[in-house]
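Hi R.,

Quick one: here's the ABC transporter domain-containing protein sequence you asked about.
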Amino acid sequence: MAVLTVDGLRKTYRDLVAVDGLGFAVREGETYGLLGPNGAGKSTTISIVVGVLAADAGTVQAPPKERIGYVPQSLALYPDLTGRQNLRFFAGMYGLRGAGARSRTEQVLRLVGLRERADDAVGAYSGGMARRLNIAVGLLNRPSLLVLDEPTAGVDPQSRTAILDSVQRLTGEGLAVLYTTHYMEEAERLCDRVGIVDRGRMLAEGTPAELGDPDLEAAFLRLTGRELRD
Ligand SMILES: Nc1ncnc2c1ncn2[C@@H]1O[C@H](COP(=O)(O)OP(=O)(O)OP(=O)(O)O)[C@@H](O)[C@H]1O
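And here's the predicted structure, written out as tokens:
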């Protein structure tokens, strides 16, 4: 069953067409990788899916906002509070209280592998730990769709592995995940299906094995070209 269906999506910024008739679906228990070079329209698409940006045309069928866990590229955490205090604060914002808030906080800490560091101030966290805490915040409200925008950018292999492991555990429980990354080998390992986009259009879609010849990076470069984008 599709948790998210995007059809004919279009968004322009003045005369720039950022998203140009994009369509894809993410099913229950599936990790879908939205891949594309810088400026392809991924972040714009994600912003529309999570409801922070309005489309010019097209449709998005998604869970209600409170059932979407959105983890943006930029961190939204309080550095002076501990990891656990941050989670308790955001749990309160979601309307979780008392024992319910406490037990959910402990569950998400465990899911991202941060229980042992939960009482350290977030300002002292490594980049990878902060990313994992940001993901934990996105999980607090038991979303049915988790949207991860480059969650492993600039983190060390340990945190990257912890992040991929958590995503795999979560999809095993039925969560649908929309994922962006510039690391093709990561998409190969993690994503059940990928969509390669450029200039706001879907160029190819399928499993990494279907698209990758000889691998996903080669397919990506063949489809999107070698010209530098930024
Ligand atoms: N607020 C904005 N105003 C004007 N143009 C914008 C705005 N946001 C994005 N764009 C442009 O829209 C296009 C798509 O950008 P978008 O950020 O969606 O791409 P992306 O695939 O997420 O790129 P990246 O991999 O760099 O995050 C780009 O050409 C970008 O410069």
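Residues 157-172 form the longest helix (16 residues).

Cheers,
M.
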